[in-house]
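We were asked to recover a plausible sequence for a given structure. The inputs and outputs are reproduced exactly as logged, with field labels preserved.

PROBLEM: sequence recovery
POSITIONS: 124
GIVEN STRUCTURE:
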């Protein structure tokens, strides 16, 4: 039951979730759920290819369902939440030097989310 609830939380989330976000969301269905159980289930789901780890430099990993279309992320520097950005930036292939071959890329935009926009941040 715990694995099913964690899988459902991840599948229904519009953004990648941290271990603590997963724990809090899953506790609504499984009140006695512990963090060790969440870690064990996350490891199993990664090994099974059900979910992917999302790594934002300097932050703990977050998790999202596998198989999502290619996309990037927005990291709010105030509340620490991560949001999916659909699609990809145009022109990345033209940035690769001649004679090089890009295999993959990651892009994270940093700033303030809608709820935190009133906080001062440096602009691009």
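RECOVERED SEQUENCE:
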């Amino acid at each position: 039951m715990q694995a099913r609830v964690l899988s459902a939380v991840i599948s229904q989330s519009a953004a990648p979730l941290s271990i603590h976000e997963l724990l809090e969301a899953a506790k609504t269905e499984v009140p006695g759920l512990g963090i060790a159980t969440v870690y064990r289930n996350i490891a199993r789901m990664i090994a099974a290819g059900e979910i992917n780890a999302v790594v934002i430099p300097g932050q703990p990993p977050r998790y999202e369902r596998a198989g999502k279309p290619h996309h990037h992320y927005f990291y709010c520097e105030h509340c620490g939440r991560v949001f999916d950005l659909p699609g990809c930036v145009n022109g990345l292939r033209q940035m690769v030097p001649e004679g090089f071959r890009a295999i993959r890329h990651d892009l994270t935009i940093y700033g303030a989310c809608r709820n935190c926009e009133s906080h001062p941040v440096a602009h691009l």
